[in-house]
């Protein structure tokens, strides 16, 4: 195959379904024996993953790599922005943090970052048959177009055809699509070759006239009308998707009489919240978000998840009145699990001159540990054992925890009913998760028995297959393949839609 085959999936808005469509196209192509890779030039997300060689990338790109059945790597997400508590973001370039910047500072770096992104994309195109790129936000953010590196800036620089996804469930999808195209310059419009209507519910016959009119008005066909998939529950990229991650239960498990209730504290700067996905897919486990003390009252397990701003989110926890509730739980022998930033909060003290620059701060004091933030970020893929089960995870943190007592728990610490670890992804290990839940149920006095055959990996694969089915069954795959193979439509073959963006030749 030619090395030129690539496609950019853009969206009318954030959360329109770009990540889902990108993953679905990757799985559809992989099923046909096409060697395909995902790519996102710039991602802003607190949900990240560590590759096998120790690089940090967006979790959505790791999920898309799994959909493509390839190993995730730094080139698939060369620029990752991780927002902090002070309006600044950490810039992760090719898997390594390089700077902390504000929005205007970052804007000045974009020309250089575009060069690096284009180098990574060119490298992937040399090594794979097809590269499916995902945009960021909307391609019609005209105030940002001159320094864009993820949408039309990337498409024009790398000669990519573009399909635009619109979310019909939120309403106004035709206006959003028409308006997106109208705001682009003539050169940018030439790259936009088709539409995907996403999250459709109802009778397709009622929608058909609208699709035809959209084609007539824009000159671009609708390449697929994708139905709403309830319970799809993929790795979320940002907090817009949190409601799909938890707040669900499959009912009591077949081996026990009780439901196990898990409350996950919803920090303002919550990160790697996919850690609780594996709990939410367990039969008989009800997982929900919590921001108030009363929401912890009937929980059998409270999880303090990761956060990009440990000290700031600890202050928020205290302001919300959650500290007394957590200390009362620990005193009563009720289970608490802290992961990464949540683990750091359980310490006696936190010394931070790096992330918050707050200096020495009192922790919750529920574990005999002390935390000091280091300048170098720890990125690792540890392997260990707990409850006699093999456990694999990944680490992303600046905080270094010194342990002075308790039991060792996944390189972390346990005292009584309080566990803490820096390992993300540990709960995805089925044997470990079952044994932990078994002990949680015993400590909480619940007659809950974990299902013996629940496989998180199999559940994830099944969801990725549903995405492949989504494209195969509801998209015009012949037209999609022709677009991938043919590249950007020839000049003059697609109409220019006035009035165009400022600076266009309309």
From TrEMBL:
Short name of one Pfam family: GATase_3
Active site: 340, 424
Key words of the record: Cobalamin biosynthesis, Glutamine amidotransferase
Domain CobQ/CobB/MinD/ParA nucleotide binding stretches: 8-231
Taxonomic superkingdom: Bacteria
Pathway of action: Cofactor biosynthesis; adenosylcobalamin biosynthesis
CobB/CobQ-like glutamine amidotransferase domain: residues covered: 261-431
InterPro entries named among the record's database cross-references: Class_I_gatase-like (IPR029062), CobQ/CobB/MinD/ParA_Nub-bd_dom (IPR002586), CobQ_GATase1 (IPR033949), CobQ_N (IPR047045), CobQ_synth (IPR004459), GATase_3 (IPR011698), P-loop_NTPase (IPR027417)
Example of a GO MF term: ABC-type vitamin B12 transporter activity
GO biological process: cobalamin biosynthetic process
HAMAP family in alphabetical order: CobQ (MF_00028)
Stated family: Belongs to the CobB/CobQ family. CobQ subfamily.
Annotated function: Catalyzes amidations at positions B, D, E, and G on adenosylcobyrinic A,C-diamide. NH(2) groups are provided by glutamine, and one molecule of ATP is hydrogenolyzed for each amidation.
Protein name, as recorded: Cobyric acid synthase
Species lineage: Bacteria, Bacillati, Actinomycetota, Actinomycetes, Kitasatosporales
Gene, per the UniProt record: cobQ
